[in-house]
Please model this.
Amino acid sequence: MDFKIDPATGDIDITGNYVSGLERAAQRIDILINTMKGEWFWDKSRGIPYFQDILGKRSKATVDSIFIETLLAEEYVESVVDFSSVIEKRTYIPTFTIKTVEGLINTI
Model:
């Protein structure tokens, strides 16, 4: 079980709620893709390497492969079932379905 994170603020839900199972896996994936590699003091290797490998002139295919590799490196992720992305107004937007040990997780 993990503490529940308020999706609107990113803070721990102070009402004492916990998450487990598929909700826990989805929350961890959300945290992963919103964490810059090197940002988390406990494990500097976690997160997406935005500054190290993405920012600058990178192809969309390169960024896609970085995201997929990072997702697959998570111990509870079994496979990436579907992955696509678009770039809108200089913003990279990935959409994916992953299979975890708990079940399928879809992003919007």
Remarks:
- The radius of gyration is 14 Å.
- The helical segments are 21-33, 50-54, 60-72.
- The longest strand covers residues 77-88.
- Residues 40 and 46 are 7 Å apart (CA to CA).
